[in-house]
Amino acid sequence: MSSMKYEKMRAKIENIVSQPLRKFKPEELKEIVNRYEKNHVISKEAFERARKIIPGGVEHNLAFNYPFPLTSKRVFDCYMETIDDILLTDYLMDGGPIILGHNHPGLTEKVLEVIKESGPCHGITSEYEYLAAEELRKHFPSCERIRWLQSGTETDMLAIRVARVFTGKKHVIKVGGSYHGWSDQLVYDLHIPGTKRMESHGIPREIFKYIDSVPPNDIYALREMFKEKKKVAAVIIEPMGGESGAIPVKPEFNKEVEELCHQNDTLLISDEVVCAFRLHMGGGQAYFGYTPDLSIFGKIVGHGYPSAAALGGRADIMATVSAGVGGGAKRAYCGGTLAANPLTCAAAYWAMKFVEETNATEIAGKAASRLSTGLNEVFEKYDLPWFSYNYGGTVHFHSSCVFGLNITDPKQGPQIKQRKEFMEHMGAALVDQEIISVAGSRFYTCMLHSDEIIDETIQKIDIICQKIE
Question: I want to staple 145 with a disulfide (CB 3.0 to 4.6 A). Which of 63, 231, 257, 318 is the partner?
């Protein structure tokens, strides 16, 4: 983690949200948008065509760019080339899973071997299934048994089902602002703490009867909720804090949650979708020093290859999810023909091997620290209240700080829209400087983001800061 201490981070977030939003000079923003339109003509045409067949013209939240989404042509190393032949330094990294760099030759070769020699999906088991599981367990000793799945959302959904079957209890507690996929029960209190059912359109209220949330880092509130709920099956956490650490975790919080869970015969579920291999080879649990009962893995486990996810945990708990048609014992129903397909399991096995061999996690982390330190120097230079920090290879860059808003504060609550819009403007300004990020507020690094590339990025962000009022 960057050297910035938790209390200092909280104070800086509070400082940003309690003062008026810093904005782009209107003429500068106008020029940024004009250049975006001029430089990405084919992307705009592609978007207009997509809108006629795809709702909103784009499939995934990561692909939303202002004023319109970009269409990629190819990715390689730490770059993305768009359909307009614009080369962007890529800090999106497919939303986090790319640590070796795009299209890593060794990994690509191994995956192609599977496609050519055995075919991508068989409907029955392959050797790669247990090889990849053994490799995952090597880095995550808490995962005595592992079940392959197809997405983080699906794995979170199964984890809470398993917890209920194993404990015989119903209540599940999450931390406000954390994201655990989009299944019915977990579309609750997402992104900004305290929003509760704000995003849960189309989901009947009764679905949330056994789901609740506590404010981030508030162990007292969690203790009180245990008293109130009595029968809690599981507490689910994002190790770095909500939104992949945009709402930073108090360093001792995860361990305190683990202890509370043990006292109440409740399972602790660690959602490692962003932390596994990116924060540490052993994920958030190794980095912060706690032992969960169940661990969630998503796209990161397959290094960007599709249909990659896994649930791991204690052998006795995971026994509730063994395959086969039910009989006698209670079990957590689970399916998925594409789960554990040879292509994904081969990608997972070799990605873990290559990340370990190349020391990619540590190299990406060093690049992230360099970037974060450089950003803070630039913000100080222009007397901006903004700040940056990193958890391993994940860099947070707080400018509008929408995730830090207190929605119960009558001054801060109404600012969600304009602060979100500013992040969109920042995203456009970054593309203007030939950088692609996550929502204008987060950068994922890989082992190919060299010192030279990082320093060039810092210089470009210096240029952006000159455009702020």
Answer: 318
